[in-house]
Design brief:
11 helices; 2 domains; binds zinc ion; six-stranded parallel beta sheet; 28% helix; alpha/beta; Quinone Oxidoreductase, Chain A, domain 1; Rossmann fold; 344 residues; globular; 27% strand
């Protein structure tokens, strides 16, 4: 099969589009999926650079998100069949620890994720446990189905399970443009929240407004905490989605109403910002960290997007052979929505 492989960590120039061995079933519970689309995530960049501490068997194939058609099914796979169109739930647990036994594979002590600890979706085919295959939401094509899994299950867990977002509450989402931020905007709006977003780009703020954002702050012109305080009558917001970190962290905490909740799943501009702990206890704040989510949460968000008619925003699709250009687009923050790879 054709695949994009890396032989060492480094820049986008390490990605090689070439022939790779066809995948095989490693267990009777595995399936082989013929991928029709993959989507990029920041985790791909960290794995390419070797920043996640993942043990890698080179050559390695990146890619945590994919959708396609089941081509081959192991003898113990029951709920998915050859020919099914599926999207892939990215985490794969060991199956033996207490987390795996309680539907929390994504917290497994020996967790692997598609493209991290196992070969990923930048390829024509992938081997994955049958349990990780879910039917594609109604109305979705393969690109939307590949754009959906990682960011939507992550956002669902952050906003619904952890922050317990209530319709009508006020939400602030930092750095609109990336997959997580846009999915958070779409889910929060579908739940009838009031949503403000931040960006350094007026164009991205405008596009967010067209997706329903109620307010946009260009943080290069004005401190976003002051602006959020002004627009909410000094009250602040109920929930902040901050996957940026860095200098924004303290401002995010300062944008919350008393009893507010901050959710985080990333630290793209800095992982060790200072925190005034007094603000947390004085203001009864909660901070939730999260990555991915459970199978139950994945099911919930699949049903939600079908019912609410929410579809992931696609920025641009590249042929698989142009994975390096696709990653550079993500790495330089040019995108609005998900960047897609198409094999063949
Ligand atoms: Zn486990």
């Amino acid at each position: 099969m054709k695949a994009v492989q890396i032989y060492e960590h480094g820049g986008a120039d390490k990605l090689r589009y070439e022939d790779a061995p066809d995948p095989v079933l490693r267990s009777p519970r595995d399936v082989i999926v013929g991928l029709r689309a993959a989507s990029l995530n920041h985790i791909d960049l960290w794995n390419r650079k070797g920043l996640t501490g993942m043990r890698v068997d080179f050559p390695h194939i990146l890619g945590a998100d994919g959708a396609g058609v089941v081509e081959e099914v192991g003898s113990e796979v029951t709920h998915t069949r050859k020919g099914d169109s599926v999207c892939l739930y990215p985490p794969v647990g060991c199956g033996a620890c207490d987390f795996c036994h309680t539907d929390r594979d994504f917290m497994c002590v020996r967790l692997r994720v598609l493209g991290e600890g196992m070969k990923g979706s930048y390829a024509e085919y992938v081997t994955i446990p049958g349990d990780n295959c879910f039917p594609i939401p109604d109305g979705y094509g393969f690109e939307a189905a590949a754009a959906f899994p990682l960011v939507f299950v992550t956002v669902w867990r952050m906003l619904v399970t952890n922050a317990r977002l209530v319709p009508g509450e006020k939400v602030l989402i930092l750095g609109i443009g990336g997959g997580v931020a846009i999915a958070a905007l779409q889910i929060a709006k579908a739940m009838n929240a009031w949503v403000a977003v931040t960006s350094s780009s007026d164009e991205k703020l405008e596009r967010a407004r067209s997706l329903g954002a109620d307010y946009g702050v260009n943080y290069t012109r004005r401190d976003f905490t002051r602006e959020i305080r002004d627009v909410t009558g000094k009250r602040g917001v109920d929930v902040v989605v901050d996957c940026v970190g860095g200098d924004s962290w303290a401002k995010s905490l300062a944008s919350l109403v008393k009893g507010g909740r901050l959710v985080t799943c990333g630290a793209t501009t800095g992982a060790t910002p200072p925190t005034d702990i007094r603000r947390i206890f004085w203001n009864h704040l909660s901070i939730f960290g999260s990555t991915l989510g459970s199978r139950e949460e994945f099911e919930q968000v699949l049903r939600f997007v079908e019912a609410a008619k929410v579809e992931p925003v696609i920025d641009r699709s590249f042929p698989l052979a142009e994975a390096a250009a696709a990653q550079t687009r993500l790495e330089t923050g040019q995108q609005f929505g998900k960047v897609i790879l198409l094999p063949g």
